[in-house]
Amino acid sequence: MIRKKANALIQQMQKEGLTLALAESMTCGLAAAKLSSCIGVSDVLLASIVCYTPKAKIQLLQVKQATIRSFTCESAEVTRQMAENLSERIAGDVYAAITGLASSDGSETKEKPVGTVFYAIRYQGRTYDFRKVFHGTPLEIKKKAVIELYGLILKLIKK
Question: Which of 90, 100, 117, 146 could bridge across to 26 with cysteines, CB 3.0–4.6 Å?
C-alpha cells in the first residue's frame, strides 16, 4: 500500500511539474525513504530533513523555542512552523512536515493520545494543517502516517 501511494504521488507531481521538500520528525525519514525507490523521484524530491528532537527543530528549521514550550514538540503549531520555515530555506513547490506520537515516550495526553499525528503542508503560498489518530505498533503508526501524508499531498495538488 505504501509503495503504491508513493508511486502515485511521484507520478502526479511529475505530471504537474512540482517539487517536494519534507521535514520529518516522528517518521524519521520514512516518507523520503519510501519515495526514494520510485521511478522519477529525482525529478520531484528536493530534500528531507529529519529533525526528531526539539533541539534539531530549533537549529535546523528555526522552530521557536517558545512554541515548543507552549504547545510541545508534537503539536500542530510546531508542525506548521516546520513546514513554513522549510519553505524559506529551499526553493520548491510543496513543503510537508510531520510530527506526532508513535509511542508513549512523548507528550501524550487524553486529548492527544499515542497515535496522534500532525501534518502541515505548504503549497501555493498557503499552509494546510491536518491531525489524524492511528492505532497499532509504533512502526504501523509511522507507516499509516506516511501513507496519509502522501494522500494529503495528492489531494492538495489535484485541486
Answer: 100
> Taking phi first (over 0 means left), then psi (-120 to 50 degrees means alpha), and beta for anything else, what does residue 147 get?
alpha
Which position has the grid cell 513554513? Answer: 84
According to the model, what pLDDT value does residue 104 have?
87
State the Cα–Cα distance between residues 159 and 50, nearest whole angstrom: 28
Pairing of strands 94-100, 116-123: antiparallel
Nearest CA to 120 out of 61, 57, 62, 77 is that of 77
Q: How far apart are CA 151 and CA 149, in angstroms?
A: 5
- Please state, in angstroms and rounded to a whole number, the distance separating the CA atoms of residues 19 and 42: 9
**Alpha helix locations (H) across 17-137?**
30-35, 41-44, 54-61, 65-71, 76-89
pTM of the model: 0.95
Looking at the chain, how many residues does it have?
A: 159
Exposed e or buried b for every residue in 52-77, given b needs 16+ CB within 10 A? Answer: eebeebbebbebeeebbeebbbbbbb
List 133's β-bridge partners, or say none. Answer: 116
pLDDT tens track for 19-67: 999 999 999 999 999 999 999 999 999 999 999 999 999 999 999 999 9
